[in-house]
Amino acid sequence: MSADFERIYAETCERLSRYLRSILPDPEERQDCFQEAYLRLWRSSSRELPLNPGAWLVVVARRIALARAGRPRPATAGADEIAVGRPPSLRLEVEEALAALGEAQRETFCLRHFGGLSYAEIAAELRIPIGTVASRIHEALAVLRRELVGELEPKEG
Q1: Are the beta carbons of 77 and 20 closer than 8 angstroms?
Q2: CATH number belonging to the domain at 81-152, selected among 3.30.420.40, 2.130.10.10, 1.10.10.10, 3.40.50.1000
Q3: Per-position b or e across 17-40, b if 16+ CB within 10 A of its CB
Q4: Rounded to an integer, what distance in angstroms lies between the CA atom of residue 148 and that of residue 30?
Q5: 71/66 Cα distance (integer angstroms)
Q6: Distance between CA 47 and CA 128 in Å, rounded?
Q7: pTM score over 0.90
C-alpha cells in the first residue's frame, strides 16, 4: 500500500491544494483539511482504494471543511490561480469577480476548475442533476467573463 499511497499523493497533492486554496482563506485550515483528507485515504485504503482518488480526496476535503466551518467562506486564493501571468493589480479584480458569483455557482465552479471534478462527480456530491451543474458553471463563467473582460483586454494607447 505504501507505494500506491505515494503514487496517489504525487498525482493528487497539487489538485487538492489548489481546490483547498479556492475555498479556505486560512492557510492553517487548508493544511489541516489537506492532512485529514490524506489520513482518511490512508485509513480507508486497508479496505479498498477509491477508483478516482483525486475526486475522492476533493470530496472528502470539502466535507471536512464544511464540518469544521459550517460552510467554507469564499476564499480569494482562487484569484491567484486565475490571475497567473497577468499584472499583479488584476488579482483584486479577480477576487471581486469571484465574490460576484452566487454561493452555488462559486461552489460548483471551484469543484470543477480548482478541484478537477467531472460534472457527474459534482452532481453526485452536491446531489443535483448534471444539467444543473452545467448551467451553474455556464452562469459562473458568464459572470466572470462579464466582470473581467475589461480587465483582461489589452489597454490601447
Answers
A1: no
A2: 1.10.10.10
A3: bbbbbbbbeeeebbebbbebbbeb
A4: 27
A5: 5
A6: 29
A7: no
Digit-coded pLDDT (tens) for 65-92? 888 766 545 454 455 555 556 666 666 7
Pick the CATH number of 2-69 from 1.20.58.2190, 1.10.1740.10, 3.30.450.20, 1.10.3720.10: 1.10.1740.10
